[in-house]
Amino acid sequence: MEIVYVYTKIRSEFGRQCNFSDRPAELHVDIIPDPTLADNFIEKNPVDVFVQVSNDMSEHEINTERFETETRGINHVEGGWPKDINANDLEHTIRYRKKVEKDENYVYTIMQLGGLMEHCIKQNNAINIYEEYFEREEEFTDRIEEPPSAKTINVFSDPNEIKRTVSHLSWHPDQGKKLAISYCCLEFQKASEDMSFDSYIWDMENPNKHEMVIKPISPLVCLEYNPKDSHILAGGCYNGQIGYWDTRKGGQAVEMPAVELGHRDPVYKIIWLQSKTGTDCFSTSTDGQVLWWDIRKMTEPVERLILDITKKDDLDIACGGISLEFETTMPTKFMVGTEQGFIILGNRKGKLPAEKIVSTFTGHHGPVYALQRNPFYPKNFLTVGDWTTRIWSEEIRESSIIWTKYHMSYLTDGCWSPVRPAVFFTTKMDGTVDTWDLSFKHSEPTLSVKVCDEALYSLRVQDNGRFLACGSHLGTTTLLEFSSGFYAHQKNEKGLVNAMFERETKREKILEARQREMRIKERAKSEQGKVEEHKVEDEEDTIEYKIAHAESAFFESIEQERDRFELEVEKSDIAKELTLSEDEEETDNY
């Protein structure tokens, strides 16, 4: 049994308080180590040592800029000889060279070119003598065998307490190292008074803090970089106003026209036009208008178009615009996706507003949230709406050439891959990003990635096709990196996709012609049936008239016979009475 007794003592009985001070170290005891004691110790590896007093360390990260390599080749071809000199004749060429070398301008030109060549040589260019020039085919086979995949690189969250929907995304035009994100509450009357109006520009390498704040007077529904000037951004507000920002001048808008000069509803899409100045853009809204702007003079829109498919230029019956499309190779054409499911093809060459609406495509049951031409085949374009994605051809108006099956979740956005003509991406309300590869299969997506639990409302692919950003309902933007099979150039892909589009277009034309013939036959049958009905009615009218005439003649003859019979009966009665009276007279006489 172990007995333990604890001695206690009051602090005031310890004596005087010790005051510590800094002073040099003093050696009081020096114990020499005994080497014989080392035999009693057991060595352990590894040995953990805990030190209580240590320096405070802070976490810090540094990312170096990525160095991009580029392979270039030089093709040396002899040429530039005058017409009177035969390049194959050695004497003529030697004589001509001597003549040129004697010229004073030749020496001066050579001296100038020598400095340029010296500068190029000093650029540390080297030739790899061990380089294998024919290893691309092996790389191609390796890329094909790699399974399709995607991984999350960064997540950019809305820094405000009240989370808002990521309404639009725009990559920086120079190498895509920055991402402009607009935030807006798109639900009707759900925006609170404390909700922030700010949108942000993020750096890909630093998801913890935004690089710049964009401060509009109303929440931004769309925000787009200028492809010619990366410092300029154009945005459309929830109250219908248009404005532009210059990152060199801060987060405030440089210029924004009055409310009455813009749209009446939220500006859902704004696109920069291809022009010499790089200052032209156009926008659309659910108020049924398309407005063209010049940021050098934003006091009023340059041009206005009402989306009235009846071509009566009536704003009350106009279709609301949700999405826009503009292809730089077709500077006069534009396309608008509407709330009613129509796709309107327009042409700016038209003098009258009614002439600018060329044709319409009908194929969705609800709003067309995404509209984009194929970057390799502009006559084919992609639309996303309701529960399907459809691919159209400008040559066919009545039906799309390729469409996906009806999904269980609503589709919200979509776009083509900028590097592969057969690949496109879509987002759904269940938080899934679908990647489709038409060269592989049409029935279902090649890769489906569950990004988050809330709905996804926007997506944008970087110009290299490798990274994709998608924004969610709660303000979270996820950056995905795809495997090389989705952005690496495939062998003969352009030819195969072109043949597929032409084949499907031809098939739809045949079906459309067949349906047209059937409609014409049905119309002819219906018209022939109506003619026969009219003939029968006419014949019935003539028969009824004859029957009625015969009946009237019959009844007239009966009446005549009846009158004649009654007349004869009366005559017979009179004759009988006369005979009776004569007989009575004879009897009396008798």
Write up what this structure looks like.
The chain has 590 residues and is α+β, with helices and mostly antiparallel strands. The protein has a domain at 149-493: YVTN repeat-like/Quinoprotein amine dehydrogenase (Methylamine Dehydrogenase, Chain H), CATH 2.130.10.10. Helix content is 24%, strand content 26%. It is built from 5 helices and 27 strands. It has helices at residues 90-101, 104-121, 136-145, 353-356, 493-589; strands spanning 150-157, 165-171, 178-184, 199-203, 212-214, 220-225, 232-237, 242-246, 267-272, 280-285, 289-294, 303-306, 321-325, 333-338, 342-347, 357-362, 368-373, 380-385, 388-393, 402-403, 411-416, 423-428, 432-437, 447-450, 456-461, 467-472, 476-482. Strands 1-27-26-25 form a 4-stranded antiparallel beta sheet, with no helix packed on it. Strands 2-3-4-5 form a 4-stranded antiparallel beta sheet, with no helix packed on it. It has a 4-stranded antiparallel beta sheet with strand order 9-10-11-12, with no helix packed on it. A hairpin with a 6-residue loop joins strand 17 (368-373) and strand 18 (380-385). The radius of gyration is 46 Å and the shape is extended. Residues 137-144 have low confidence and may be disordered.
